Amino acid sequence: QVHLVESGGGSVQDGGSLRLSCSASGDTYSNPYMAWFRQATGKKREGVAIIDTDGSTTYGNSVKGRFTISKDNAQNTLYLQMNSLKPEDTAMYYCAADRVQWLLLPEYKYWGQGTQVTVSS
Predict the structure, then answer these.
(1) What is the model's pLDDT at position 31?
(2) What is the rounded (10 degree) CA torsion for 27, 71, 5, 39?
(3) Contacts of 18 (CB under 8 A, 6+ apart)
């Protein structure tokens, strides 16, 4: 069992930045694959970024070059640095974890409750 808690969301203007955090607890050793997803109102959940156990990263096309995923293994905390935010980035952001690497597919077993990001023009 893994418990995930996101924080850091908020309201920013177009072009602004935010840093999201996801604190993980429980059996994180057995569920090392972590990712960020987002879901805008009325839309499907979208993969934003993943970080593999070797530190390699993969990003969704819509956030490449603007978002950076990182992880502090000692603190069991996942981060998402979001720069050059756009109104279309407005969504609920979730972190996820699993023992299986699902890449950007929303098939992860464990999910946080989400943190809202709103970008105004």
Answers:
(1) 96
(2) -120
(3) 8, 9, 10, 12, 82, 85, 117
- The two tokens of residue 37 are 């997803």
List Cα–Cα distances, 3 to 18, 37, 63, in angstroms. Answer: 23, 16, 26
Q: How confident is the model at residue 46 (pLDDT cuts 50, 70, 90)?
A: very high
77-91 core/surface letters (b: 16 or more CB in 10 A; e: else):
bbbbebeebeeebbb
The first and second tokens of residue 81, run together, are 């640095």
Q: 108 pLDDT band (50/70/90 cuts)?
A: very high
C-beta of residue 38 within 8 angstroms of C-beta of residue 91: yes
Task: Say what the pLDDT of residue 67 is.
Answer: 98
Residue 14 token pair: 């177009």
Structure tokens at 40: 């805008």
